[in-house]
Design brief:
By secondary structure, the chain is mostly beta strands. It has helices at about 70-75, 325-335, 385-390, and strands at about 1-5, 25, 30-35, 40, 50-55, 60-70, 75-85, 85-95, 105-115, 125-130, 130-135, 145, 155, 165-175, 185-190, 195-205, 210-220, 225-230, 245-255, 260-265, 265-270, 280-285, 285-290, 295, 305, 310-315, 345-350, 355-360, 370-375, 395-400. About 5% of the residues lie in helices and about 50% in strands. The strands form seven sheets. Strands 1, 3, 4, 5, 6, 9, 12 and 13 form an eight-stranded antiparallel β-sheet that branches. Strands 2-7-8-10-11 form a five-stranded mixed β-sheet.
Amino acid sequence: MKKIVFFIMAVAAMLLSACSTSETATVAVGNVSNSECGAVTRAAIMSHPKIKMTRRGSNIDFELPCYVNCGMAENGIKVEPEWTDGRLNVILKPEKTFNSDIGSMCTCQVTVYFTAYDIEDDSFVLTVDGKNSLKVDLAGHGVVYIDEGTGDMAYEEGFSYQPELTEFMFVKKDIPACIGVIPENRFIIYRHDTSTHFMADGYFVPCSLTQLSAELDREDDGTLVLRYVTDVGEIDGRATDCNQQAYIRAHIENTPDEEIHLKVNPHKAMVKGEDGVEREETEYDFDGIIKKNGEVETEKILGYVDNPVLGKVPIVPVDMQSLPDWLKKKMQEMDSLPAELGGYAVFRGSYIFEPIYYIYSPLSSCIACEMYEENGEDFMYGKDAEQKVNEVRLWRCIYSTK
């Protein structure tokens, strides 16, 4: 939903109708608006942000993705383009003064919309707040897209990027595993727009393993293969003589298809055939189809619980030792409270691929207040808190006193 910010028409006296001048001149703009805060993060990184320009006679409509302070996004963004020697510099400013303490560490993704008037030139260099130098060529085309990161340009058909592994995390937990036990590895894969996210929790790795990274391959039929690269050779998540649990997370961008076929961790295993003979074959931790904006779970669900804020939530207990120290301390404090206070439950969800924890107490005066980020900081900061909660996915009840 767009929020109309203002309409401004400021034309410098020396601005020529073709915007071709050797001096800096203010460009007339109008129809300025910005979207509401989208993805909110404290370490904002946009994968392949694309600027869209649509030629309408001598005017150009812009759709400019960017990250700004949450207060700036809420109170309006002013656009002040300048033209100098074939270079268009778009300057973004706050429309009005706002309390910088509100979300001072909060950065959110928005799209800024505006129309730049009387630009006859088809070719020019575009910069945003003086950063980057993106070459634009509108000759013969009504729509142009510019990749702000690479400078690549595409026309009406848009871009076609190859799938890309943009994030991979491996955390080895200091929790020993039982010798000879085959674990219940929990995998969660879900897709949002053009991104695909994979998580493995409680995964067994050899004690001798110190390094685990990943590579992403694409087979001829389009199947994506996420391969683990370790310093001990192939691993399969099964217990050996000495094991530790691990948490693995992968984020894959540029997966826009309605369905994708994903294989995770190909490894050799001895498989007994129908004839009773064992043969070496390739197995995978996961091998399946995931639909767009869908999710696949292999976790062990013990039941469901109804929560007044989250609704019906699967019960998936986790090892308490794997939780953040600040959360374990808070749970210990709540365990010491009298039972007649109604007990409590802990829920975990995922927001922009980051864990969010929610502590629910039925007798609390504010049943939705205690939501925290993984580092223990308040998740409910800012006036867009309700919107943020609605964007948290994959809620699970991981602990309950009842």
